[in-house]
Design a protein that fits this description.
Elements: E1 5-6, H1 9-12, E2 25-33, H2 39-51, E3 58-61, E4 71-74, E5 84-88, H3 95-107, E6 117-125, E7 129-137, H4 143-154, H5 175-202, H6 204-222, E8 239-247, H7 248-258, H8 262-279, E9 290-296, E10 312-318, H9 325-341, H10 344-355, H11 360-372, E11 380-386, E12 393-394, E13 397-405, E14 414-421, E15 424-432, H12 439-454
Parallel strand pairs: 5-6, 9-11, 11-14
Antiparallel strand pairs: 1-4, 2-7, 2-13, 3-4, 6-7, 8-15, 9-10, 12-13, 14-15
């Protein structure tokens, strides 16, 4: 029997970080036009798509006494069709009702003893539409790999059924096998340390650079320096969520004219939207520091899909103190370029790699302590994901909107995610319902800022 795949440190910490007030799963809502399929046909389609994505047939198995990081094991004993559910909206089936269903579905924690995902078919959406809610634990996917899973769902079955290549499921490891695997990992720890020491002796200059990169990364992640703001504080158990969207082509044109990226435009829209929103809540908006954690995925189109997260991150202070949209976009462009030039993504990635060599007990305790400390480093999440560029269909229905869901956690009361798909750019915003119940004001403010950015004239 081959050795089971152990969760990497970044993936494993999402499990002990879950509490009664924060569920750490990511998601997408697919809004489709046309007649909804029969629920049984949809379920069959999903089960077929699952067969093409092996991670969806696995569960995270904890090590004895949690002395090691969990391992991924096949779950052939579980009927994956039970992960597919059906709901119907009451008339008139507006977007507001869909939002209510999504927040209810997303508020429930996933069962850690089963594969960490579920899908909901939601019928009865007004305007001849229906929807799919896709939900997966952050342990299993990050934003980009989550988009890959949605892409597998959107890959309609061919007209002529073709066999799906299946590998035989591996037997679930016994407790004895898990303990043996854990002991082998612990025995190799000193050997890995000796290897690092030898590399340092052979090339001390490179060793100093690696050490400096890790120290720099730790400062980026751990140093609490944010002043108080409405965006940071204890979380309740309930969330509010919604979205705004626009055509992608004008956004790309504005980005090109400014020498920026689409992600820069997204961050500038958040800066302007938050400025508008916060001016309605506090007087001294210019004194509020908004620092966003911006995940950076090193995935390439040629890189095979794998379980879990591959992200490093940047930490971008959004220019909420500037009055004009063009000035905010230029400031964001300069700040993201500075983060990259200073090697912040590489430094945070180095910290993640170091965490892979820490004993699981210390890792779990560190994750809990970090959460209980209130972190104080960032107060906004701003993820961005590139989806498929071409028009997408699911069982014959055209996808008209792909809306992301990003979880709120670690006293961060606002999480945002931007997805580009089939010529549209959609921004999903999740907030803590108790602290920031007026999410519609924030969504409207970000949407208006997007409109203003798209309206910027080309420089003379």
């Amino acid at each position: 029997m081959s050795r089971p795949q152990r969760l990497r440190a970044l993936d494993a910490i999402f499990l002990p970080m879950e509490t009664s007030t924060q569920s750490l799963h990511v998601g997408s809502v697919l809004i489709l036009e046309g007649r909804p399929p029969d629920p049984a046909a949809f379920r069959d389609h999903v089960v077929g798509a699952v067969a093409r994505v092996p991670v969806l047939g696995r569960r995270a198995m904890r090590m004895p006494l949690d002395l090691g990081r969990p391992v991924w094991v096949d779950a052939p004993e579980i009927d994956l069709a039970e992960h597919v559910h059906h709901a119907r909206l009451d008339e008139p089936g507006g977007d507001e009702q869909l939002r209510d269903v999504v927040t209810e579905v997303m508020s429930r924690r996933l069962d850690a003893d089963r594969p960490l995902w579920e899908l909901w078919q939601v019928d009865g959406l007004a305007g001849g539409r229906w929807a799919v809610i896709a939900k997966a634990h952050h342990t299993m996917v990050d934003g980009q790999s989550g988009a890959d899973l949605v892409a597998a769902l959107l890959a309609d079955a061919p007209t002529q059924p073709q066999p799906v290549a299946r590998r035989d499921p591996q037997p679930v490891p016994t407790p004895v096998a898990l303990v043996a695997d854990l002991l082998a990992w612990l025995v190799l720890l000193p050997l890995r340390a000796i290897r690092v020491l030898l590399r340092s002796v052979v090339d001390p200059g490179a060793a100093r650079q690696r050490a400096a990169r890790v120290r720099f990364g730790l400062r980026q992640v751990l140093v609490p320096d944010l002043p108080p703001s409405p965006l940071t504080g204890p979380l309740g158990a309930e969330r509010t969520w919604g979205w705004t969207s626009t055509e992608l082509a004008p956004v790309a044109q504005v980005a090109h004219r400014a020498g920026a990226t689409v992600n820069d435009v997204f961050l500038a829209a958040l800066a302007g939207g938050l400025r508008r929103y916060l001016r309605g809540r506090v007087e001294a908006v210019d004194s509020i520091v908004v620092r966003a954690i911006v995940p950076v995925s090193p995935r390439t189109p040629q890189q095979p899909r794998r379980t879990g997260n591959l992200a490093s991150a940047m930490f971008v202070v959004l220019p909420t103190d500037l009055d004009e949209p063009a000035a905010r976009l230029n400031a964001v462009k300069a700040r993201t370029a500075d983060q990259k030039a200073r090697g912040v993504p590489a430094a945070t990635a180095a910290v993640v790699r170091i965490a892979d060599h820490l004993p699981a007990v210390l890792l779990a305790r560190g994750a809990r302590a970090y959460g209980q400390s209130g972190q104080g480093r960032v107060n906004l999440v701003a993820s961005n994901v590139r989806g498929p560029a071409q028009e997408q269909r699911l069982l014959g229905s055209r996808l008209v909107e792909l809306v992301p869901w990003a979880p709120t956690a670690e006293e961060i009361r606002v999480s945002t995610a931007m997805v580009t798909c089939a010529g549209r750019m959609t921004i999903g915003i999740t907030t803590d319902a108790a602290a920031l119940p007026d999410v519609d004001r924030l969504i409207d403010a970000v949407g208006r800022e997007l409109t203003d950015l798209v309206s910027l004239e080309a420089p003379a």
